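EI: anyone free to look at a 286-residue chain?
SC: sure, send it
EI:
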Amino acid sequence: MLLCLNAEWQGSESPEVEQGARLLARELFEGMSHIDLGPADCKDLSVRDGVFALGCVVDRFRNALSELDAAAPDRIFTVGGTCGSEAAPLAYLARRHGGLGVVWLDAHGDLNTPATSPSGHFHGMVLRTLLGDGPSAVLAHIEVPLDPRRVAVVGARDLDTPEREHAAAAGVGIIEGWPPDVLVRLRELLDAAAVENLYIHVDVDVFDPTRFGDALYPVPGGPSLESVSALVRELVTSYDIVGVGVVESCGRQPSAAPALKEFLVDARLWGRARSAARRGSEASGR
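SC: here you go
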């Protein structure tokens, strides 16, 4: 398991998520071997082809993908800034693991395009781009788009009309809010697509903001950290988790990073990742 920090913020125009990512990485990775993906000094924030800071987004994506190719991990655990920080890990893993499934735990769909995005921020387009429809400068580096039948957005509470329309037309699974049968419905979606290898994306805005208040774009409602960790524990027992991403914490609250670490331990994501990372370091002699 390769541990990665990708404190990219340009996909949201909000530098505070870089601070949040670095604080969480410090909480999790202290004393452990990990890599810092992408250049931190990108300054071209101009809008191009309808995307804010597209030059930075593309440079960071391309460089991160190159670093992952050089490391050649089988599994990746990413602490990221915006949701866009997961573009490279997911593009890499989709190429490495055929039929990759994705559970996108997020209050937003991230299914816009430059033409439909209200903001022009890439973090609201990243999942659509990984599905093969997004800024051409990013798509040029995605060899294996995700299969929409193997993608489920869970916990959504703020979807734009074009996102709903695309999800329905393409076959992306959408589970809005946090219904009592969320696990049953999610299993049905994944099993119908014969998913075995799974990537779990956690945008911290999936949580109820009255229970976790450090998200970049909080949305009212949503589940508690305990409810999400219970769902993830079930996924861990049923599927091969080849990637995890945790993103969009701002680091405004001192309790945020420790709370996320506790969540990841309770969800049985961090203990497994830490053990696998240590085994990998020992095997490589690092």
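EI: The mean pLDDT is 94.
SC: 👍
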